[in-house]
Amino acid sequence: MDLCIYHHRIGQQAVHNNQKMREMLCKIAQEEYEKTHTREEWMSFAKKNYLEE
């Protein structure tokens, strides 16, 4: 999913300005990724598991 510049960097809820929003979107991304890939593949590029905290 691509974000517009406002939601990516500028706005109050932008992922670069709001850690909670960033982690929520990363969790969703990991859930979707793991529907067709392994956890090991996710970890090879993301370096963090957002599903187990």
- What is the straight-line distance between the termini? 23 Å
What count of helical segments does DSSP give?
Answer: 3
Biggest β-sheet: count, sense, barrel?
Answer: none
Radius of gyration (CA) equals 12 Å
Helix/strand structural class? mainly alpha
Spans with pLDDT under 50 lasting ≥5 residues? Answer: none
- In total, how many beta strands? 0
Residues in helices, as a percent range: 40-55%
The coarse overall form would be elongated
Integer average pLDDT: 92
Name the helix and strand elements from N-terminus to C-terminus, one letter apiece.
Answer: HHH
The fraction of residues in strands falls at under 5%
Task: Please specify the SSE layout and strand pairing.
Blueprint: H1 5-10, H2 19-33, H3 39-46
What does this 3D model show about the protein?
The chain is mostly helical and 53 residues long. It has a domain at 24-53. It has helices at 5-10, 19-33, 39-46. The longest helix is centred in the middle third of the chain and has 15 residues, at 19-33.
